Amino acid sequence: MVAKLKGRVPFRADPWKATMRRLFPVLLALLLTCVAVPGQARAAGEVTYDEHSLMVDGRRIVLQSAEFHYFRLPSQELWEDVLEKFKAAGFNAVSLYFSWAYHSPRPGVYDFTGVRDVDRLLRTAERAGLYVIARPGPYINAESTGGGFPAWLKTVPGRARSFEAGYREAYREWLHRINPIIARHQVTEGGPVILYNAENEYQVNTDAAYMQDIQDQARADGIEVPITTNDCCDAGSWSSTWATGPGAVQIPGVDDYPQSFECANPELWGPWGEGLTEKLRDDIPVFAAEYQAGAIDLGNAGYERCRELTGPAFMKFFYKNNLMRTGATMFSYYMGYGGTNWGWLAQPNDVYTSYDYGAAITEARQLTPKYDEFKRQGLFLQAVTPLAKTGAVPSPATSGNAALTTVARANPDTGTQFVLVRHEDRAATSTDETILDWAAPDGRHQVPVQVKGRDAHVLVAGYDLGGQRLAVSSSEIMTHAAIGGRDVAVLYGTAGSPGATVLRYASRPTVKVLEGRVRVTYDEGDLRLDYAHEGLARVLVTGGGRRPLLLLIGTDETAAEFWRAETAAGPVLVRGTELVRSATSYGDTVRLAADTKAGPVEVFTPADRLRIGQDEIRVTRTPSGSLLGATRAPGQAHLPALTGWRAHAESPEAAPGFDDSRWTAADHTTTVSPHKPKTLPVLYADDYGFHYGNVWYRGHFTATGSETRVDLNAITGLRGNYLVWLNGRYLGSAAGGVQADSGDQATPPNPDPGPGRFDIPDGLLKAGAGNVLSVLVATTGHNDDWIADDLRFKQPRGLVAASVGDTPITWRIQGTAGTDRLRGPLSTGGLYGERTGWHLPTYPDKSWNSATGTLPPGVTWQRTSFRLDLPKGQDVPVGLRFGGDPSPAYRVLIFLNGWNIGQYGADIGPQREFSLPAGLLNEHGTNTLALAITAEQPTTGPGPLGLFAYGNVRSGR
Ligand code: GAL
């Protein structure tokens, strides 16, 4: 964790930027002398681009994407739920990393079935109506084990993330498996994939031949869409104007995390800069390839704090500021939904089981206030199409209040203007008002604007809003739609703030204020409405030479109650319900696929009848012309108590007589790892094909009798540990090391990364006879390779040194027993119980004792089962909660129906609640929970466990 931070902060912070800028002319000159500058490829298939935006079949789009990791949600049926939630928030794209480690247990072996079925994933994205940014790496980072590299790659020669032989064959193997799947889902094939991202934040220790080869392989595999990459650090090597040589991509983008990862301090405000995405080249759109939308919880503050750190205020200010000051038209927010580091998916030094990320959609798929803000902004970006092509223009003055400032852009073809109003001092917390003196395309207007500290508004003028002409408004536009022969528009502003909207008419229209307090004036074609943003005002305008307009003017909060969905008969707007996924219309009926609780629902539609899922909703027609009805409360969900726990001790490997003759002999004397062992043989688990979770070692030696101490050293990754027995007697435990050498020059190598020294009790050794040392090492995942340095990535796992005086030891090693075909390579480790199926639901535990009393050092399993019968047609995400306080005396692996869904313990992280995703969880039948508890000291183990529901809605599909 620390090493990663050290490796990263300097690159993100401004001094690095400054240095890069100083060095830039020198680097440029150097590069120009070294490389030829070939012509820039422009269009690929039907996806093209220019300096303003991407285009699909010539149609400009603002790409509004968010990141989703299918490998962090091992339930195909829930992919659809999350992606539909993306779409409903106004996203038109999803960014998908593809994790090599998740698919490949061994060289040459790849699995794309079940929860790894990415073909299905891409079909699901397409069905949800999302474009896809495909990001197959080969390196992805993502706080995932090995940064997405399979652990077997640590035994392959050739520096990872370079063009060196060994690594080259390996990454090509992965690309040739994943690329063809992506290729058949491209926009050019009628599918959703719109961009292909090569590598990831590849900026340190780079190799242009490698970067180029990834792209050549992609093209050879049929990738036709534009290739992009995400630069970590502003002026990056694949993105600057001079980067047109080998390795350069068509549309480079930049990653930006202005709010840092310090969730413990959610009051922070842009400690890592202002978060403006750079324009990298004159011929491409500005692409915010990863823009912060949550945070990893480096300080164990809990993800709710991360959600605060990156909450609606941050989103309003930073996202709108970025949009308006850079003219960016391509955004991908990291993360839209975080998910779970189930199994051994985590890169252990940065994250624990939950990868909730403080995202807009929680790990248990619940919508948060951040989701509302995405929806307000996302629907705006989709509805107001002139945003896809803008340039900077002079901005209107903020008369009378120097605290506020404006930034303006205009679409050169339509003249539509966009004005950002924010505080001059971005850290200001005061509420300020001004009269904006706006020389808009349809005339000059003075409109009142109020801006709360750490808020910002994007206002629009000179806009053909459907059949209307919006001269200017000091409310923000959320969306508008032509419904039943009239325009319906949703505008909004901060509750209590003043607003004015001016519309143009050929003659005085008829204006009816249906609800709210709105002052109406008309002067030479300008219809002016003045109001305060309160609740939801409704204004119906008819005549005046235009089709009717229903203006709905709300607050941030009332705007968030709206949803928009498209049907064959045109769009519908819905106010109320928890979520509208989609709508269909047939005959006189509109049918919503919506999540509901008890409450009112109002639908703006020409239809007369309303269905939600299978329910016919009784409706009345409102004065606004909408349908109004009510939805029912979801049925109660009963969650049983978890009782009837049975227990069984394991760790037979600790006993001297245990038969390890079928284990792998650990007798290597060389290793590919740049870390050379201090004692031989090499005991690195990966070198013997054991890559994830717990690993057992048994060392046999004939004692001289003069040995007094066992000296061990293990590297496990953060939060790992190891337990030691000699001749069956428990000697104790030690914390596993994190890095021998992080490869990061700021951190000196650690020659003694995970020491454990154990005195041999008198009388325990058998002089002149066989003695057995048993060591259980809990490894916690593999280092990432962010700095493209094998010193960091090829860090061993397991024992890295072992001695008992000078006495020779012969070793055997045992880890995971084969790959679980259903659950993939990352689910299961090498505990005895895992090797013998104690975690599986089918395991017969009837002979086990009821679980009570003290657990001895070593591993004890506890199992129980429970029946669920959750109400059909409802979405009730279930979690498992550990009561009481955890103790450092133990750690727990949690298996649900055989799936390792996480790790709990005082040393593991702040997490007390674990998501049990539907799909792994049988919602209508029996489930088995199995806990593997590794005790370092005698302990009573974890406190009482219970089930709870994260939410409960009717899911009308
Ligand atoms: C980015 C990286 C992502 C992820 C993120 C932090 O720099 O590209 O993979 O690690 O940081 O969560």
UniProtKB/TrEMBL annotation:
InterPro entries the record matches: Betagal_dom2, Betagal_dom2_sf, BetaGal_dom3_sf, BetaGal_jelly_roll_dom, Galactose-bd-like_sf, GH, Gly_Hdrlase_35_cat, Glycoside_Hdrlase_35
Domain Beta-galactosidase: 386-562
Coiled-coil ranges (or none): none
GO molecular function, one term: beta-galactosidase activity
Pfam families cross-referenced by the UniProt entry: BetaGal_ABD2, BetaGal_dom2, Glyco_hydro_35
Gene3D superfamilies: Beta-galactosidase, domain 2, Galactose-binding domain-like, Glycosidases
Catalytic activity annotation: Hydrolysis of terminal non-reducing beta-D-galactose residues in beta-D-galactosides
Signal peptide extent: 1-43
Region (Disordered), start-end ranges: 737-757
UniProt key word Signal: yes
EC numbers on record: 3.2.1.23
Entry keywords, A to Z: Glycoprotein, Glycosidase, Hydrolase, Signal
A single BP term in Gene Ontology: carbohydrate metabolic process
UniProt record similarity statement: Belongs to the glycosyl hydrolase 35 family.
Protein name as it appears in the record: beta-galactosidase
Source organism per UniProt: Nonomuraea solani
